[in-house]
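hiii, so i know i said id send this last week but things got crazy w the move. better late than never?? heres the sequnce for the chain we talked about at the cafe, plus the structure i predicted for it. fair warning i was half asleep when i ran it
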Amino acid sequence: MNPANNECVRPLPYLLTDKYRRLNILPGAVLEGEFTERPCAPPHTEDKDYRGDLSFKGPCSAEKFIAILKATESSNVEEGFSIRLTGGEKHIPSLTPPEKSIITLSVNPRDLSIVQDAYKPGKIKVIFSDKSGRTFRYLAITDLGFYNYAEKNTGDNFLRLNDFIHSQEEVYVRLGLSREFTSPDGRNGYWLQVNGIYTFPEYLPELRCHS
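okay and structure toks below
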């Protein structure tokens, strides 16, 4: 996020994992670089090229981080993407792409849970309800910290994660859209995915570290 105008910037090409580890870049990190516009069609209008290298300026303070989340918050998924959903839809058809590919939502901490994928052992999914009361079930999660935690913790330790989330005062979700994808049953479009989950006032250190 550009703190000057709250514009979301997605640097491309993506940084490699070894650079994240070497510089200890975690969610909330401050990166600096020279970004340029890149030809891109909706919904991934946040994609930007960068010249040279990106420099790591250290972590953002918790106060600034939550201020940016609040400033970019949408009240619900439909409002955020300016779409209408029916039933349990988890994708937006490619013929009607929204103008953005990621939004911020504030959710009731007790309305979000991490669950094991019943069909793919070791994988996890997210269930949450937005402020309109609509529930989104079994969404993919791309937050690496949660995946690392799930791989290392099972049973009661895994349940502790949900207990912790439910005990927090505020939870923010960064909800994104995948690149265009056609499912095995033929549905084509952009699929909802949880890119990040942020809890306040506390966070689990195990979720914000490199494995």
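btw Residues 10-207 form one domain. thought thatd interest u
miss u guys!!
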